[in-house]
Amino acid sequence: MSAEALTTSITAGTISVSADERVYGRTAILRTAYWFTDRAYVFIAKRDEHMLLVEITPKPATLDAPIPPALSVLAGEFSNQLLDYQLREEIEERTGSIRELLITKALFDAGIPDSPPGDHRDPVATEC
Amino acid sequence: MREFYTIQTYQAPRVRYNLLPFRFLRLTNDRELLVNEAGEHLLTPTGTTSDLIKGRLVPRTPLYQDLKARHFLYDNESSGLLGVLATKYRTKKNFLHGGPKLHLFVVTLRCDHSCHYCQVSRQTTDRAAYDMSLQTAEASLQLMMRAPSQHLTLEFQGGEPLLAFDTIQWIVARAKELAGQRDKRLEIVICSTLTLATDEMLTYCRDQGIKLSVSLDGPAFLHNENRPRPGNDSYERTISGIRRARDIVGPDSVAAVMTTTRRSLDYAQEIVDEYVKNDFRSIFLRPISPYGFALKTAHKTGYEMNRFLEFYRQGLAHIISLNRAGVDIQEVYAKIILSKILTPYSTGYVDLQSPNGSGVGVLVYNYNSKIYASDEGRMLAETNDDTFCLGNVHTDTYEQLMTGTAMQRLLAASCNETLPGCDTCALQPYCGADPILHHATQQDLIGHRPTSTFCHKNMSIIKHLFSLLSDADRDLLRIFFAWVRDQGLADIKRQAPVCA
After folding, report:
1. What pLDDT does residue B498 have?
2. B90: closest chain A residue by CA
3. Which of B25, B86, B403 sits opposite A102 (nearest CB)?
């Protein structure tokens, strides 16, 4: 893995994470960022052709979270979780089609009849 | 000249393995939890997921064999996988079969209590305008009988349902008649404080095979503070009602539920002991629902979820201690989750189902002829939020209810397999979705997982149970299996050792 694939810096109360999309998929980056939106404001932008920039600014203290997390801790958590989400992307890539097949077979074998013509916006006809 | 075979001829063929769908999370610094699509799990050393994905697992080691046996990988020696997994997946979703099985009839909003946390409007006892009419009851029963399932539960709610006892009697007779015509089995429950239960009412319940569900919040000081009524004697009347119900209706005829308030949070052990003292074999440590008029008294009853989770852990620890000492008492929420972890079966608890059971598993027939997807949806309606009203018993058919706009919107947010944050979560098979709660607390059916109290609560409790399982001794495993199998401790001890 390239040394530049993931870099973090802390400036003026904000963590800046630069992630190489050739190493960390965009979906993994976005999923990771999603889980920080309770504790921080998250801004995402394209840095250049291959790099995504994620800026994380902790929210002010609240009754539920009276002590804001340390920036270095947040940065470390983001890096670790990004690794995990990248693994999840790899699992999905290799097993997603099997999951679809599995669920299709499970529902098919449940004896659910094929859908009749139309969809839920059509008027409903009832049997007397 | 004679030649020898090369050394490669005698080496075992290289076993190549492939992945099956699964999710994972880091449970502790040294343990990972892997969960497959059918809800089978494995606790493994940290790094296992990475090794598994990178092809670094060594075949025929114990870890490899465990991962293969529990369908996290397959190799050239595996066979017949897809059918087995599909069957397991379908078994987990079996609750969908048969449509809504639980039908709540809100026969009156009148009540003699003024509970702080009550989510519905408490009309005083002299307002007959808040009772269900017999015409509405008839139309509601006709719709109820359209549900495909051959086993239905009819549950009376309120207010205080016993204030409309004559309506209950009419509905029970008519429901049994209609169920008999359709060859359906009927279970009937009355949710009541029992403070107004006369011996005649209890005798009727016995004769009709009706079960009772009562609220018991804990010791007298706590129960009476939570549930004020004229005379401030709710606890004494409730206990009297429980005893008389057991005497007249039967020893197992009464179940109890409690609601946790801010005041309750310091008394986890005392609340559990109260249930044991009154011979209950289960207790449901549940948080207050954020619906309806409970919001107006939030300053009395609101608390942070972290405090509730601490209360829950204390209560569960005390319950486990009691079990180790030979006392039969289950914690219901833990039992539901453990059933999902330790058995291949689904459960009937709608909040931990995917799709969520609102509408799919339960329907609520309100006194005013409106139908709601759940009791929580009905509670929201009492504060002028009719989002989850599916229709009206007098104007809508069963098909229109189940395919209408309200139901469609609800279903679109009811499958945790598709929700942000839930779709990749290892705990997905053990959890559920709660669009109604997210609508009430976040004004969004989908919900924002990082700030969701539903997610926070369930993640914390499910992880806590896995931590208990991973360090469980034989006795604790026996206790958990006794809960899951609804057996007594003495019965489970006579059986062979269990493996999780």
Report:
1. 54
2. A106
3. B86
User: What integer pLDDT is reported at residue B125 of this predicted model?
Assistant: 57
Tell me the two tokens of residue B495. Answer: 């059986």
What is the pLDDT, as a whole number, of residue B259?
87
Q: To the nearest whole angstrom, how far is the Cα of B355 from the nearest Cα of chain A?
A: 14
State the pLDDT at residue B48: 96
Tally C-beta pairs within 8 A across A and B: 83
The answer to whether the beta carbons of residues B374 and B362 sit under 8 Å apart is: yes
User: Rounded to whole angstroms, how far apart are CA atoms B229 and A105?
Assistant: 56
CA distance B147 to B357: 14
- The H or E element containing residue A94 is helix A71-108
pLDDT at B301: 47
C-alpha–C-alpha distance, residues B211 and B245, integer Å: 10
C-alpha A91: how far from chain center: 14
Q: Which of A38, A87, A126 sits opposite B451 (nearest CB)?
A: A38
Residues 33-52 of B with CB under 8 A from A: 37, 49-50
Its pTM stands at 0.91
Reported as a single tens digit per residue, the pLDDT across B399-441 is 999 999 999 999 999 999 999 999 999 999 999 999 999 999 9
Residue B155 pLDDT: 98
Q: What angle do CA B36, B38, B41 make, to 5 degrees?
A: 45
Interface contact flag, A35 B450, Cβ < 8 Å: yes
In this predicted structure, the answer to whether residue B328 has a pLDDT above a threshold of 70 is: yes
Peptide bond preceding B344 in cis form (omega within 30 of 0):
no
Residue B361's region, left for phi above 0, alpha for psi from -120 to 50, else beta, is alpha
Nearest CB to A34; choose among B82, B86, B420: B420
CA dist., res. B421 & res. B405, Å (int): 26
Q: From the list A34, A39, A87, which residue is nearest B50 (CB)?
A: A87
Which residues are CB-neighbours of B471 under 8 A, at least 6 positions away? none
Token pair 């049994």 is found at B176
Tell whether the torsion through CA atoms of A53, A54, A60 and A61 is positive or negative: negative
CB-based contact B399 A95, cutoff 8 Å:
no
Which of the four pLDDT bands, split at 50, 70 and 90, describes residue A128?
A: very low
With CB atoms and an 8 Å threshold, state whether A105 touches B86: yes
| Residue environment code for A88-119, b if the CB has 16+ CB neighbours within 10 A, otherwise e | bbbbbeebeebbeebbebbeeeeeeeeeeeee
Q: Going by C-beta distance under 8 Å and a sequence separation of 6 or more, which residues neighbour residue B475?
A: B324
Percent of residues in chain B assigned helix, strand, coil, to nearest 5: 45, 15, 40
Distance between CA B353 and CA B356 in Å, rounded? Answer: 5
User: Are the Cβ atoms of A91 and B53 closer than 8 angstroms?
Assistant: yes
Strand segments (E) across B47-173: 73-75, 102-106, 151-157
Phi, psi (rounded to 5 degrees) for A10: -125, 120
| pLDDT at residue number B30 | 94
Distance (Å, rounded) from C-alpha B440 to C-alpha B444? 8
- Tell me the per-residue pLDDT of A42-59, one tens digit each, with 9 for 90 and over: 999 998 889 999 999 999
DSSP letters for B327-379:
---EEHHHHHHHHHHHSS---S-GGGSSS-SBTTTEEEE-TTSEEESSHHHHH
Interchain proximity B403–A120, CB inside 8 Å: yes
- The token pair at B96 is 């969908």
